[in-house]
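In response to reviewer comment 3 from the previous cycle, which asked for concrete evidence that the modeling workflow produces usable outputs, we include below a single protein chain processed end to end. The sequence was submitted unchanged, and the resulting structure tokens are shown without manual editing.
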Amino acid sequence: MSNKSRYTGNVSVFFLLKTQFENVGDALINKALLAEISRRAETFVDVTLCPDHFVKNLNVRTESNPKLHLKTGILPLFFAMVHKRLAGDKTYFVLPPGGSAGEKSRLSYLFNLAYNCYLALLKALGVELVSVGVSYDDMGPRFARIVRGRARLVGHHYVRDDLSAKTLNGLAAKFAGLVPDLAFTLPFDFNRLFQARSAPLRIAFSFRTDKEYVGREKVLRLVEQVMQSLPQISIVFVSQVQRDSEFMRLLYERFKNVKKNVSFEETAFSLKNATDVYRDCDYIFSNRLHALLLASSTGVIPIAMLSDGRDNKIRGVFDDVKLNRNVFNLDKDDFELSWLETTHVSEISRASIVDKKQCIDDVFDRIFLSQRQ
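The workflow returned the following structure tokens.
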């Protein structure tokens, strides 16, 4: 069936949800993706692979959204796509957002080759393939071959940052353009975000240390210097991804007897819990993009503590929304924190964030609405 076959005017979108289920950031962007799609088209999402807590994070309420339908099983999802296509619907299959980097094992490489063949079959049947919000970084030769082949199949391929675009250009892999991080669809509390802060302050720390260049001693030194400079603060160590929990808990154990008002929050399995924790804070120090964006959406002032010459995707996002003055070097031996109580988010950032949301709307309209008859 060709892509030019009969189209009735109905649009059906299918989505197989597969991601890091112990990561609140992934819950955030997948929830945003589903919301954007189901506002525009009949949407069928397969949650077979999802644990219960992740489905709860998505807040998928089919009774309040008649365009959103849950499916169970890869084969039923495939046959439903074929049925809709034969009925004349404009039919889409959406690939999950997230990050792509590193290398694939031989077994994973073979699995991904098979998946590319599956996508090729869908395309041959007239199903249009969509990938929105994926980021790409350095990858090994096996993974690069997979990405290059998949890019030839995906007709609507939008990456989320300039570094991803540069990576794909280096692979000669095609893509349609850029789309801002889907976290910018969050309802930002601008009124609180622009407020000046005064003591006593509550500060959140949420750090990943699974990268070799992020030494735990650097984060420990940062916490110590913040506590020395601002003795009246209260602190919450937040784990937003399960693999961050061990170190965040270690920091809590290290400081709980040194200072009052120190707590630890495990939020890797609950987007609502993470949001509630951040809402009570004034600042967040983090090297995780979605911790910074989720917290700032609740009115928390984000402070990106990044390794020298690394974390360029976060730098790029902060530059784009005019928050480059809120980016600092985690590798410094000494932190001068007198600036903290005067650090804020400007009205310029509001306009930039609103522009990001409009850009996301434009991309989804272009994909799902522009060809309707």
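The mean pLDDT is 89. We consider this sufficient to address the reviewer's concern, and the full set will be provided in the supplementary archive.
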